[in-house]
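Moderator note: this is an archived Q&A kept for reference. The question asked for a predicted structure of one protein chain; the sequence and the answer are reproduced below.
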Amino acid sequence: MCHSAFASAAFDEGARYAFLASQERQSIEVVDLYDHRLAATIALPEDPDLVISSDSLKALLVAHQASRQLTIIDLATEELSFHSYALDLTPNQLSMSPVGGLVAIYDNTANRLEVHAIRRRERLLLADGVHTETPLTFSADGQVVYWSDPGTGTVNSVDLWENRRAVTVARAESELSALSRTADGSLGFVSEAERNLVHVLDLRSFTQLTSIRVGARPGRAWGTADGSLMLVPNRSDGTVTAISTLTMQVIYTIPTVPDPVSINAGWLDTVAVVVGAGGEMVLFELTTGQVVKRMDVGKELLPGVVTSDSKTLAVPSPENGEIVLFDMRGRDFLGKISQLPHDIGPMSLAVSNNICH
């Protein structure tokens, strides 16, 4: 059994504790977003490649690609327990279902997708011939997995009964983003970089509704928690386009930051912060698109996560070994959480405001 380098404690409050993988320390770093501190370092038997947290399981899933295993860490006990879970594929990508203890696991060499019920230690779905370069997306009820296939220009789906469907939205070999769904699961949005388009799908009938022209080389859309807007980062011109999910019309396009990596809505969906990979951050009003604050951390930033109360944005800064905290309600910096390794990956927070990306 492995042990925390700090005092033992339960870390199963899904809205409070966030987790980041570090190969430098061969650990999972536990961050307390209520008290703004590094709460623990969980030592691991081998290097972690990916980590995701599950509120329904009260557990962490840590992927080890070399050994083709998951480590399941029970977060609900003071003495953290570790369980090995052997796989028949290499876990290059993990995606947690929004309901229940289901996880989608993707091997990008074998082009194999599996869905496992972790609590029962049971594989529910095996799908071969899955080709994608982008993250997987679960349906709102956890019964369907979606992915984009740039080789064929299609958006694809498979349900837990192995029924597969595909919709062609672009030419073969087009650059397609992952699918982002609205909070209610009714609509899906996929960006096509070459033609500066966002394709809108009806996910119930799995048909294309329309295509919307946006800025230059759009990336994956980020949705608001209330489902009213999709916010599209346009990577070549440093702008963000807001699309109404009701009218399917562009509301505004505003200049923000070069190379955006996330767009996080917060404080009751009244504001959003665009996070740039180079350290720039821009806050704007969601209703009007008015930019009200520009900041520059000066170092590399990873995608941000907003807490479930929509008040706090947490952004990992690996070069600084920090988490930058921003007050979405007060529209200002809140502080930093330091003493983190300089190779931290993206943050996993089981209960957050990022519910529809």
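Archived answer notes: The chain has three domains: 1-86, 110-213, 222-357.
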